[in-house]
Design a protein that fits this description.
Number of strands: 13
Structural class: alpha+beta
Number of helices: 9
Largest sheet: 9 strands, antiparallel
Radius of gyration: 33 Å
Strand order of the largest sheet: 8-7-6-5-13-12-11-10-9
Strand content: 15-25%
Distance between the termini: 98 Å
Oligomer: single chain
Order of helices and strands: HHEEHHEEHEEEEHHHHEEEEE
Helix content: 25-40%
Shape: globular
């Protein structure tokens, strides 16, 4: 013990009464300046202003910091996590990259649509994105079960009309053999009567779609050759430019038949989506809404001179929800609020 106390007194005597640390301070300043210079030469500053090495590991490290951070320390509020906004990749450079991005967004249940009120005005994505989205819709349609429809059953359709002024919503029931029809206006009573003689009815439409080819190119050839064009809503007639007349005809015919989707075989429905992707001037519209304000995926055809038409598809199962046409700054639309096959008038699918 005596030896240890003696050594301690000796150590104390060796320590100067006033320690000069000015040299250490200068050395620390030199090291700091050198380190800062190296960072400026080989780093980038993130949004937070902190500099990080410009390496893949550094870039992915930021994501790990945000995503896999553990629980907050005791007494400290947990950081607020921002919900990611899923958007179609409009700024992606190549079709292959676009496809990868779209597949990441288009999960099996459909396209993710942001919650809350409508965002910015709709923006049209590239044709490459339209091909990816409509191919996904085709795959979903092809997996849908086929429906056997009897002649004594009825095709039900509920529509709303927005032609400058909102008109009453109405429901119709058409017997598949074409013998009877029924109608009920919003707030009115059901009226059943003999079907009027006309060029088409639900049973005839069913036979037409059953005879259609499922190959998308064959479908487009068929629609180009129709003697009587069909549209769910007029797009630019009779002022369509001659060079887009066939495109308008094909786009319109697909929309007409998609309104009768419950009558359509799955493989034909799949062909319709693929055919849409082959029509020039067709793109996908983000933040689209139908004429009733329901959010969906817009399949847009640009006719030029500020005129365009959009078919709105359900973001989950890609079913047809309606059509909107914008012309001369005015918007018109028809929305399908319900459709299906039922056993008698007044029944709902």
């Amino acid at each position: 013990m005596t030896d240890e106390m003696e050594r301690l007194r000796n150590f104390r005597d060796e320590v100067p009464e006033r320690l000069d640390v000015s040299g250490a301070g200068r050395k620390l300043a030199e090291l700091t300046a050198a380190t800062s210079g190296r960072r400026r030469a080989g780093t980038f500053a993130g949004a937070s202003g902190r500099q990080r090495p410009w390496t893949p590991a550094g870039a992915f490290g930021r994501r790990r910091d945000r995503t896999f951070a553990g629980a907050a320390a005791p007494g400290r509020a947990a950081p607020r996590r921002r919900r990611p906004a899923y958007r179609l990749g409009l700024a992606l450079a190549g079709a292959g990259v676009v496809a990868v991005a779209a597949v990441a967004v288009l999960r099996p249940q459909g396209v993710v649509v942001p919650d809350g009120p409508a965002g910015p005005p709709p923006a049209a994505a590239s044709p490459a994105v339209a091909t990816v989205v409509l191919e996904r819709a085709a795959l979903v349609a092809a997996r849908s079960p086929a429906t056997e429809i009897r002649p004594d059953q009825w095709f039900y359709l509920k529509e709303s009309q927005h032609m400058g002024a909102d008109l009453p919503t109405f429901e119709t029931w058409d017997r598949m053999d074409g013998a009877r029809t029924a109608i009920r206006s919003e707030g009115g009573r059901l009226r059943v009567r003999a079907a009027e003689k006309g060029p088409t009815h639900s049973g005839r439409t069913q036979r037409e779609v059953a005879a259609l080819p499922s190959d998308p190119d064959a479908l487009l050839r068929h629609f180009r050759g129709l003697r009587q064009a069909r549209y769910p809503l007029s797009i630019c007639q009779p002022r369509c430019a001659p060079e887009i007349a066939d495109d308008v005809k094909m786009f319109g015919a697909i929309g007409w038949y998609m309104k009768y989707a419950p009558l359509m075989p799955p493989e034909t429905a799949a062909g319709m989506y693929r055919a849409l992707a082959r029509i020039p001037n067709v793109s996908i519209e983000e933040n689209a809404t139908d004429a009733d304000g329901r959010r969906g995926i817009g399949v847009r055809f640009d006719a030029g001179d500020g005129v365009h038409a959009s078919y709105i598809l359900d973001p989950v199962d890609y079913r047809y929800m309606g059509v909107k046409v914008v012309s001369d700054g005015e918007t018109m639309g028809l929305s399908v609020l319900g459709s299906g096959i039922v056993d008698k008038p007044g029944d709902l699918p």
